[in-house]
Specification:
Layout lengths: L4 E5 L6 H5 L1 H5 L4 E6 L4 E2 L4 H5 L9 E2 L1 H7 L3 E4 L2 E5 L4 E4 L5 E3 L2 E4 L3 E2 L12 E3 L5 H12 L6 E5 L3 H16 L6 E5 L10 H12 L4 E3 L4 E5 L1 E5 L4 E4 L1 E4 L4 E2 L2 H4 L10 E3 L11 E3 L4 E3 L8 H20 L14 E4 L5 E5 L2 E5 H19 L4
Parallel strand pairs: 1-2, 1-9, 2-5, 9-21, 11-18, 12-13, 12-18, 13-14, 20-22
Antiparallel strand pairs: 3-4, 6-7, 7-8, 10-19, 15-16, 16-17, 23-24, 24-25
Length: 373
Amino acid sequence: MAAKQLVLIGGGHAHMVTLARLSTFTAMGFGVTVIQPSEYHYYSGMGPGMLGNIYRPDEIRFATRKVVEKQGGTFVLGRVSAIDPAQQLVRLEGSDVALPYDVLSCNAGSYVPTDAVAAAGPDIFTVKPIEKLLEVQQRIISLSAERMIDIAVVGGGPSSVEIAGNIWRIGRQYAAHAPRIRVFAGRQLLSRPPAKVRSMAMASLTNRDIEIIENHYVKSIEPGRIVLQNGETYPADLTLSAVGIKPSPIFAASGLPVGPDGGLRVNRYLQCTDQANIFGGGDCISFEQEPLDKVGVYAVRQNPVLYHNLMAALTGGELQPFDPGGGYLLIYNLGDDTGIFCKWPIIFGGRLAFRIKDYIDRKFMAKFQAMEK
């Protein structure tokens, strides 16, 4: 009888424990295949810091391929186009080859929608995939060599704050002419976090001459300019869109049950609500019990549950429920060696906040990069 096949879509945060313990599956005779569009997985929490040249690319990424193959698994470099639950197959973009699975786990991540991008241009970027931020960094330095350029950051969430702050860092430390930075925040910058976090972020950015445009939404992002819904236009030699994220579209395209945001609908066992052998975690799922914010802490908390339940699904064991837990810590990297620490009701800013974030992030990376050795 053929060995049962475990297929993982993506090597992101929710699959870290499973990847670390991949040999426990292969030692039992199960085949394991991991599909990912890059040989590396980049840690999004340190992405703005890479943009600001606080971190090197190799400091914020995991060598997924190396980890998988070292433990007897198969790594497939590719992007999933669809899942066929009836045939238990995973189909890849640009390939006629379909990968069979007995148990499937999805950590397919998310993307930044580009609805507002009226026409593609070489200097219009989104904050995902994270590795593209390195290209953004180099373009800023290159474009700023001859003159002051205008940079637009579109979006009003935490990502926009961190991106704008780290663009300022690049401009100040590495560009011949520091760029003019504008954040197009829509209705309001940081409308969801506590008011104190918003006021601290506003002060940090405006004190560095970063312009924040509120109460106006972007109508279109065009090569060389931003057009607001009220008709106003602003120059933009380079634009970075951080307008929020949406789950991977593969689930809706595959006819699998999805939540309001298009994420794979899963029950309290992180199990697809109508396919018992499909599981998922991270940004790509819609948790049936309660909506979960698209933050990495939930993926990290899902890690041990996913590992346990994938093994249980292969061996006939009992599934374990996922408890999202209580509140979570957020620390913003403002790009000037300061941060904002927020775990309600404790909120403070300054160098200590950034040092705490840096310590936590480096410790997380060291733990899982150890798998590569």
